[in-house]
Amino acid sequence: MYLYLFGSLFRGEFDQYSDIDLLLIKDKKEHYLSIDLDKYSIYNEERIEDLWKEGNPFAWHLYFESRLIFSTDKSDFIRDLGVPNNYKNLKNDLNKFYKLYIDSLHSLKESTDSRDFDLSVIFLAMRNFASCYSLGSLYQYNFSRNSAITLQKDCLKIPIDCFSILERTRILSTRGIGNNVSEIEYECVLKELDNISNWFQLINNKTSNE
């Protein structure tokens, strides 16, 4: 068994809303009945090896932003895997997160009953879309919550207060921390949806042949 720290704490972006991200890698035969599944991301060794072969963004995330904190055999499984293969699934991943964004827009137009959740999914789509673009097209890793507005090229340009509202909905949706979006805040986000849509389309156009 191997236990790794990864994510925002490793990047030095830890704040009051950050989780302590822990990855547990185990052999398929290992069973730990006392493990709190809510506290760990659990993968078996074979799945991690597959992610490395795929050049999956999560593999690159772990390669750059993880640190071993416990090992039953004193070895470092991730370091021993070496560098992940090149990331080759950029266009499919961009399409996937763009569709997630579009579906959330449609949901907002149909009803505001799940408004905060839909806004949180928009934030998730923006973040993952930007991280994939950065890794697959700019050849730079950026797995930050702020990836969309911190890209070295083609970053999303919207007011920081609007971005913070979207970020807050994600924290509320995943951790139950914070307040629901007010009508004024919702209107602020609505005014920026065209800019956000144009940003998605800009990157889709730039990567159409990748």
Task: Report on the architecture of this protein.
The chain is globular and about 55 Å long. The protein has a 4-stranded mixed sheet. It has helices at 8-11, 45-54, 57-64, 77-81, 90-110, 115-136, 147-150, 160-175, 183-206, and strands at 2-6, 21-26, 41-44, 66-71. It has 210 residues and is an alpha+beta fold. It folds into 2 domains: 2-81, no CATH class; 90-206. 30% of the residues are buried. Helices cover 54% and strands 10% of the residues.
**What is the helical fraction, as a range of percent?**
40-55%
* Radius of gyration, whole Å: 18 Å
Taken from the alpha-carbon principal axes, the silhouette is globular
How many structural domains does the protein architecture include?
2
Poorly predicted runs are: none
Which structural class should the secondary elements be placed in? alpha+beta
Order of SSEs:
EHEEHHEHHHHHH
Terminal Cα span: 38 Å
Report the mean per-residue pLDDT as an integer: 90
- Percentage of β-strand residues: 5-15%
Strand order of the largest sheet: 3-2-1-4
Main beta sheet: 4 strands, mixed
The tally of helices reads 9
**What is the number of E strands?**
4
Pfam families: Polbeta (PF18765)
InterPro entries: NT_sf (IPR043519), Polbeta (IPR041633)
Protein name: Polymerase beta nucleotidyltransferase domain-containing protein
Domain Polymerase beta nucleotidyltransferase: 3-74
